[in-house]
Design brief:
- α1 crosses α3, α2 packs across α3 and α4 packs across α6.
- The chain is built from 6 helices and 6 strands.
- It is elongated, with a radius of gyration of 21 Å.
- It has 182 residues and is α+β, with helices and mostly antiparallel strands.
- Strands 1-2 form a two-stranded antiparallel ribbon. A two-stranded antiparallel ribbon has the order 3-4. It has a two-stranded antiparallel ribbon with strand order 5-6.
Length: 182
Protein backbone atom coordinates (compact mmCIF):
# COMPACT_ATOMS: atom_id res chain seq x y z
CA UNK A 1 0.00 0.00 0.00
CA UNK A 2 1.36 3.43 -0.87
CA UNK A 3 1.05 6.52 1.25
CA UNK A 4 -1.25 9.26 0.05
CA UNK A 5 0.48 12.08 -1.77
CA UNK A 6 -2.03 14.86 -1.27
CA UNK A 7 -1.23 17.36 1.43
CA UNK A 8 -4.71 18.53 2.26
CA UNK A 9 -6.79 17.12 5.10
CA UNK A 10 -7.57 13.39 4.96
CA UNK A 11 -10.82 12.38 3.29
CA UNK A 12 -14.03 12.81 5.29
CA UNK A 13 -15.32 9.73 7.04
CA UNK A 14 -11.87 8.16 7.51
CA UNK A 15 -9.90 7.51 10.68
CA UNK A 16 -7.29 9.97 9.44
CA UNK A 17 -9.89 12.72 9.21
CA UNK A 18 -11.12 11.98 12.74
CA UNK A 19 -7.56 12.25 14.07
CA UNK A 20 -6.96 15.41 12.01
CA UNK A 21 -10.17 17.05 13.27
CA UNK A 22 -9.33 16.22 16.88
CA UNK A 23 -5.80 17.63 16.48
CA UNK A 24 -7.25 20.84 15.02
CA UNK A 25 -9.48 21.02 18.11
CA UNK A 26 -6.44 20.49 20.35
CA UNK A 27 -4.60 23.34 18.61
CA UNK A 28 -7.62 25.61 19.19
CA UNK A 29 -6.89 25.37 22.93
CA UNK A 30 -4.29 28.15 22.91
CA UNK A 31 -3.85 28.05 26.67
CA UNK A 32 -2.59 24.47 26.64
CA UNK A 33 -0.94 24.48 23.21
CA UNK A 34 0.80 27.83 22.85
CA UNK A 35 3.14 28.61 19.96
CA UNK A 36 6.36 26.70 20.50
CA UNK A 37 4.81 24.06 22.77
CA UNK A 38 5.08 20.40 21.85
CA UNK A 39 2.23 18.12 20.90
CA UNK A 40 2.04 14.58 22.32
CA UNK A 41 4.30 12.04 20.62
CA UNK A 42 3.11 10.03 17.63
CA UNK A 43 3.02 6.88 19.75
CA UNK A 44 0.94 8.57 22.46
CA UNK A 45 -1.50 9.74 19.78
CA UNK A 46 -1.61 6.23 18.25
CA UNK A 47 -2.59 4.82 21.64
CA UNK A 48 -5.07 7.62 22.30
CA UNK A 49 -6.93 7.12 19.01
CA UNK A 50 -6.25 3.40 18.51
CA UNK A 51 -4.80 3.92 15.03
CA UNK A 52 -1.55 3.10 13.25
CA UNK A 53 1.42 5.52 13.13
CA UNK A 54 0.80 6.17 9.44
CA UNK A 55 -2.68 7.56 10.20
CA UNK A 56 -1.22 9.96 12.78
CA UNK A 57 1.62 10.83 10.41
CA UNK A 58 -0.82 11.73 7.62
CA UNK A 59 -2.79 13.98 9.96
CA UNK A 60 0.41 15.68 11.19
CA UNK A 61 1.66 16.19 7.63
CA UNK A 62 -1.63 17.88 6.77
CA UNK A 63 -1.28 20.18 9.78
CA UNK A 64 2.33 20.96 8.85
CA UNK A 65 1.34 21.71 5.27
CA UNK A 66 -1.27 24.15 6.53
CA UNK A 67 1.38 25.85 8.67
CA UNK A 68 -0.19 24.95 12.02
CA UNK A 69 2.70 22.79 13.29
CA UNK A 70 6.38 22.19 12.61
CA UNK A 71 7.59 18.60 12.40
CA UNK A 72 11.17 18.05 13.53
CA UNK A 73 13.11 14.97 14.64
CA UNK A 74 12.60 15.95 18.30
CA UNK A 75 8.83 16.15 18.00
CA UNK A 76 6.00 18.28 16.69
CA UNK A 77 5.70 21.86 17.90
CA UNK A 78 2.85 24.33 17.54
CA UNK A 79 3.66 27.05 15.10
CA UNK A 80 2.95 30.60 16.19
CA UNK A 81 3.23 34.01 14.68
CA UNK A 82 6.63 34.59 13.11
CA UNK A 83 8.59 37.43 14.73
CA UNK A 84 9.59 40.44 12.68
CA UNK A 85 13.25 40.49 11.68
CA UNK A 86 15.53 42.42 14.03
CA UNK A 87 16.65 44.75 11.26
CA UNK A 88 13.21 46.37 11.09
CA UNK A 89 13.19 45.99 7.32
CA UNK A 90 11.05 43.52 5.47
CA UNK A 91 12.10 39.93 5.77
CA UNK A 92 13.64 38.01 2.90
CA UNK A 93 11.80 34.93 4.14
CA UNK A 94 9.32 33.56 1.65
CA UNK A 95 5.81 34.97 1.78
CA UNK A 96 2.82 32.66 1.66
CA UNK A 97 1.91 31.86 -1.91
CA UNK A 98 -1.10 33.34 -3.64
CA UNK A 99 -2.99 30.04 -3.50
CA UNK A 100 -3.05 30.18 0.32
CA UNK A 101 -0.55 27.39 0.83
CA UNK A 102 2.49 28.10 2.99
CA UNK A 103 5.59 28.83 0.97
CA UNK A 104 8.46 26.37 1.08
CA UNK A 105 11.54 27.38 3.08
CA UNK A 106 14.31 28.90 0.96
CA UNK A 107 16.86 26.61 -0.65
CA UNK A 108 20.52 26.62 0.35
CA UNK A 109 21.37 28.66 -2.77
CA UNK A 110 18.71 31.28 -1.95
CA UNK A 111 19.85 31.46 1.68
CA UNK A 112 23.42 32.07 0.51
CA UNK A 113 22.23 34.89 -1.75
CA UNK A 114 20.20 36.45 1.09
CA UNK A 115 23.19 36.40 3.46
CA UNK A 116 25.45 37.83 0.74
CA UNK A 117 22.97 40.71 0.19
CA UNK A 118 22.74 41.39 3.92
CA UNK A 119 26.53 41.52 4.28
CA UNK A 120 26.77 43.88 1.29
CA UNK A 121 24.09 46.29 2.53
CA UNK A 122 25.35 46.26 6.13
CA UNK A 123 22.39 44.47 7.70
CA UNK A 124 24.82 41.82 8.94
CA UNK A 125 27.51 43.76 10.73
CA UNK A 126 31.12 42.62 11.27
CA UNK A 127 31.43 40.50 14.41
CA UNK A 128 27.68 39.78 14.60
CA UNK A 129 26.98 36.03 14.98
CA UNK A 130 24.60 34.95 12.22
CA UNK A 131 23.74 31.24 12.43
CA UNK A 132 21.19 31.17 15.28
CA UNK A 133 19.41 34.30 14.05
CA UNK A 134 19.11 32.85 10.53
CA UNK A 135 17.89 29.50 11.87
CA UNK A 136 15.07 31.24 13.74
CA UNK A 137 14.17 33.55 10.88
CA UNK A 138 14.03 31.02 8.05
CA UNK A 139 13.00 27.89 9.97
CA UNK A 140 15.48 25.63 8.16
CA UNK A 141 17.72 22.90 9.50
CA UNK A 142 21.24 23.70 10.66
CA UNK A 143 22.73 21.49 7.94
CA UNK A 144 20.87 23.35 5.17
CA UNK A 145 22.02 26.68 6.58
CA UNK A 146 25.65 25.57 6.96
CA UNK A 147 25.62 24.26 3.37
CA UNK A 148 24.34 27.67 2.26
CA UNK A 149 27.08 29.48 4.18
CA UNK A 150 29.97 27.22 3.01
CA UNK A 151 30.63 29.17 -0.24
CA UNK A 152 30.60 32.43 1.72
CA UNK A 153 33.25 31.02 4.06
CA UNK A 154 35.43 30.12 1.05
CA UNK A 155 35.07 33.64 -0.35
CA UNK A 156 36.01 35.20 2.98
CA UNK A 157 32.64 36.91 3.48
CA UNK A 158 32.11 34.86 6.66
CA UNK A 159 34.49 33.37 9.16
CA UNK A 160 34.16 30.86 11.97
CA UNK A 161 35.86 30.98 15.35
CA UNK A 162 35.44 28.37 18.02
CA UNK A 163 33.59 29.81 20.97
CA UNK A 164 32.34 32.76 18.92
CA UNK A 165 30.55 31.21 15.95
CA UNK A 166 30.10 32.30 12.35
CA UNK A 167 30.25 36.02 11.68
CA UNK A 168 31.21 38.62 9.09
CA UNK A 169 34.89 39.50 9.66
CA UNK A 170 36.40 42.93 10.15
CA UNK A 171 38.71 44.03 7.35
CA UNK A 172 42.16 45.40 8.03
CA UNK A 173 42.62 49.16 8.08
CA UNK A 174 41.89 50.76 4.72
CA UNK A 175 43.53 53.85 3.17
CA UNK A 176 41.00 56.08 4.98
CA UNK A 177 42.50 55.04 8.32
CA UNK A 178 39.59 53.02 9.74
CA UNK A 179 38.65 49.41 9.58
CA UNK A 180 35.83 48.65 7.22
CA UNK A 181 33.38 45.83 6.72
CA UNK A 182 33.01 43.89 3.49
Amino acid sequence: MTRRKTTGPPAKGTLGRAVYDDLVGMLADTKKYRPGSRLPSYMALCQRYGVSPSVVSDAMLSLAYEGRVVIRPGGVTVRGELPLPASGRGSSAPEPSSNGRPAAPPTAARLGAIVRERIADGTIKPGQPVVNALLKEFDVSRSVLLNALAPLHKEGLLTYRRGVGTYAPYLPEGPEGGSRAL
